[in-house]
UniProtKB/TrEMBL annotation:
<dbReference type="GO" id="GO:0005524">
    <property type="term" value="F:ATP binding"/>
</dbReference>
<dbReference type="InterPro" id="IPR027417">
    <property type="entry name" value="P-loop_NTPase"/>
</dbReference>
<dbReference type="GO" id="GO:0016887">
    <property type="term" value="F:ATP hydrolysis activity"/>
</dbReference>
<feature type="domain" description="ABC transporter">
    <location>
        <begin position="1"/>
        <end position="148"/>
    </location>
</feature>
<dbReference type="InterPro" id="IPR000644">
    <property type="entry name" value="CBS_dom"/>
</dbReference>
<keyword id="KW-0129">CBS domain</keyword>
<dbReference type="InterPro" id="IPR051921">
    <property type="entry name" value="ABC_osmolyte_uptake_ATP-bind"/>
</dbReference>
<protein>
    <submittedName>
        <fullName>L-proline glycine betaine ABC transport system permease protein ProV</fullName>
    </submittedName>
</protein>
<dbReference type="Pfam" id="PF00005">
    <property type="entry name" value="ABC_tran"/>
</dbReference>
<feature type="domain" description="CBS">
    <location>
        <begin position="166"/>
        <end position="223"/>
    </location>
</feature>
<dbReference type="InterPro" id="IPR046342">
    <property type="entry name" value="CBS_dom_sf"/>
</dbReference>
<dbReference type="Pfam" id="PF00571">
    <property type="entry name" value="CBS"/>
</dbReference>
<dbReference type="InterPro" id="IPR003439">
    <property type="entry name" value="ABC_transporter-like_ATP-bd"/>
</dbReference>
<feature type="domain" description="CBS">
    <location>
        <begin position="228"/>
        <end position="287"/>
    </location>
</feature>
Length: 304
């Protein structure tokens, strides 16, 4: 079977019409970066291992638009480079298609990298079910500890949580407060260009920037609540700093709000607070060599 026929197996079983099948095949090929005109009439033997897995291990499972997808060790036979690339591809696709994926693996690094929730099983029974962070911080028993590995646990023990680094009293304003002149006055007095918006219960509502205020300042009827911008990402106080740093870098953000499980504002993680922590904990001595110093200095330059 050529690639188009291969991808279309399940839609054909479901009696989709040809036009719908062809459209879906092209959509899926484009989704994984394979040009339909180039690849739809090729055969799997003409593809690299990574390309074959994109077809057989990923998009064929998506062809019929299922609500739940089961993937049983789809990348286990690949070389390390292809495997890492497909893990990244799967993370991206999951965000795009917004489908639940049950991903079976015996590779703890793979599970920690791609999962929102991990279920560890032994002899057919669930031993622990939690987020990657929770499993790393609080393994349920010795079986889980051994599965995670001593080295990973030691690494986690050295990494601080967000609550240890965050700014604890960010500048806020209530959506019920006065107009934009008042918001600008607060920004001026506190020397900030952004205010976080919280309600009477300290629940995070969003933010306003000086640019939002200036754009609407001439309209005296405008209130703070009328120009609120929503945050796309927040972090939990117990999140590992390394995870939060990745989120900040991926979104090119200067800061990210810290909220608890009830969406109540607990602080603000900024590039400055991260650099401040690194500077306090680790001396940046350019006369000392070593891999650790190089890594820390790279982090310092990243968040300076």
């Amino acid at each position: 079977m050529d690639i188009a026929t291969n991808v279309a197996v399940v839609p054909r079983l479901l009696k989709w019409d040809k036009q719908r099948i062809d459209k879906r095949v092209d959509e899926l090929l484009n989704m994984v970066g394979l040009e339909p005109e180039t690849y739809r009439n090729r055969y799997p033997s003409e593809l690299s291992g990574g390309q074959q897995q994109r077809i057989g291990g990923v998009i064929r499972a998506l062809a019929a638009e299922p609500s739940l997808i089961l993937m049983d060790e789809p990348f286990s036979a690949l070389d390390p480079i292809s495997r890492e690339q497909l893990q990244e591809e799967l993370i991206r696709l999951q965000k795009e298609i917004k489908k639940s994926i049950v991903f079976v693996t015996h590779d703890m690094d793979e599970a920690l990298k791609i999962a929102d929730k991990i279920v560890l099983m032994k002899d057919g029974n669930i031993v622990q079910q939690a987020s990657p962070e929770e499993i790393l911080r609080h393994p349920a028993n010795d079986f889980v500890k051994n599965f995670i590995g001593k080295k990973r646990l030691q690494q986690v023990a050295k990494v601080p949580s967000v609550k240890e680094i965050m700014v604890r009293k960010p500048i806020t304003i209530s959506p019920k407060r006065g107009g934009l002149a008042e918001a600008m006055k607060i920004m001026e007095s506190k020397e900030v260009d952004t205010l976080l918006i919280v309600n009477d219960e300290d629940e995070l509502q969003g933010y306003i920037s000086i640019f939002d205020v200036l754009n609407e300042f001439e309209d005296e009827s405008k209130r703070v609540k009328d120009i609120i911008q929503k945050f796309e990402h927040v972090v939990n106080p117990n999140m590992l700093l390394t995870e939060a740093i990745n989120l900040i870098n991926e979104n090119n953000a200067s800061y990210i709000p810290v909220v608890n499980d009830q969406n109540k504002l607990r602080g603000l993680l900024t590039r400055g607070s991260i650099v401040g922590h690194l500077s306090d904990v680790y001396p940046f001595n350019n006369n000392r060599g070593g891999r650790e110093d190089g890594l820390l200095n790279n982090l310092y330059r990243t968040f300076r």
